[in-house]
């Protein structure tokens, strides 16, 4: 009877260790999955932040280019206006000089 009892206890111990091993393996798999999910979520979040940052940088570049274009247009209009005034000034000066020559 003692051998039967020892054999029964040994079988239960092996079954218990086997169950613990399966639980440990399941826990390890669950932990691995959780870590994988966390890493995946972190990578996705980082990717979204990079995309958003690049979008903002692109928008800033576009806005800057628009402002440079507007400033260039304004400068061209100013230069054209100044050139027109300079032509009128030179024309007036030449006209006065011609009149002065006629008087002499």
From TrEMBL:
It comes from the Bacteria. Residues 1-24 form the signal peptide. Keywords: Signal. Residues 79-90 have a biased composition (Basic and acidic residues). Residues 71-104 are annotated as: Disordered. This is Uncharacterized protein. It comes from Sphingobium olei. The lineage of its organism: Bacteria, Pseudomonadati, Pseudomonadota, Alphaproteobacteria, Sphingomonadales.
């Amino acid at each position: 009877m003692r051998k039967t009892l020892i054999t029964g206890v040994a079988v239960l111990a092996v079954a218990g260790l086997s169950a613990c091993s399966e639980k440990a393996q399941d826990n390890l798999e669950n932990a691995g999955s959780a870590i994988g999910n966390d890493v995946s979520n972190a990578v996705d979040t980082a990717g979204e932040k990079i995309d958003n940052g690049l979008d903002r940088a692109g928008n800033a570049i576009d806005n800057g280019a628009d402002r440079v274009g507007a400033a260039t247009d304004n400068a061209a209009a100013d230069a054209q206006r100044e050139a027109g005034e300079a032509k009128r000034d030179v024309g007036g000066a030449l006209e006065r000089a011609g009149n002065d020559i006629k008087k002499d």
